[in-house]
Amino acid sequence: MIKNVIVASGAVIIKEGKVFLNKHGEDKFWKFLGGKVEERDFSNSEMSLEEACRREVKEENGFDIEIISPLKPMMVPKPGSEDTYVVLIHFLAKKIGEIKPGDIDEFREFEIEKILNGEYGEEFAPNILPVLKSYLGMKKAGLIK
Question: pLDDT digit string (tens) for 1-18?
Fold first, then answer.
């Protein structure tokens, strides 16, 4: 039974067939840049999810982003919790500036095709594959550049 829901907003930054991922917090797997939507993100009700995404990326990685388009939203169980789910709101984004790591443990680029083919001996968050597949489908359909 779902008792708790956390809303998180994340940036999917893709350049030249590679996606930027990081590790931070309790989780030991690679994930998109972003994090939990906080109360302060609701000061602008029309843009709260986008603002949360921008804020989290800046705090964790030290650079700004330009949001290009919404991507596949998802709901996944929170690792290590039986009654908490995380609603993940993804945005295709462009990196502005250089990386100046803040709260993250590691930051790395991964080739999308190698992730999809399971060629990395790494653990990825459960939303990585579905979101990348959705992105590629949207790109193929001409919905995004």
Answer: 778 999 999 999 999 999
| Helices H / strands E in the chain, number of each | 3, 7
How long a stretch of residues is the chain? 145
Please give the structure tokens belonging to residue 122. Answer: 């790494």
Q: Options 3.40.50.300, 3.20.20.150, 3.30.565.10, 3.90.79.10; which CATH number does 4-140 get?
A: 3.90.79.10
Rounded to whole angstroms, the Cα distance separating 30 from 20 reads: 10
- Report which of 69, 70, 31, 34 is spatially closest to residue 53, judged by C-alpha positions: 34
DSSP E strands in the chain: the ranges are: 4-15, 18-23, 33-36, 64-70, 74-77, 84-96, 106-111
From the list 66, 69, 89, 87, the residue with the least C-alpha distance to 78 is 87
Q: Is the pTM of this model over 0.90?
A: no
Q: Which amino acid is at 23?
A: K
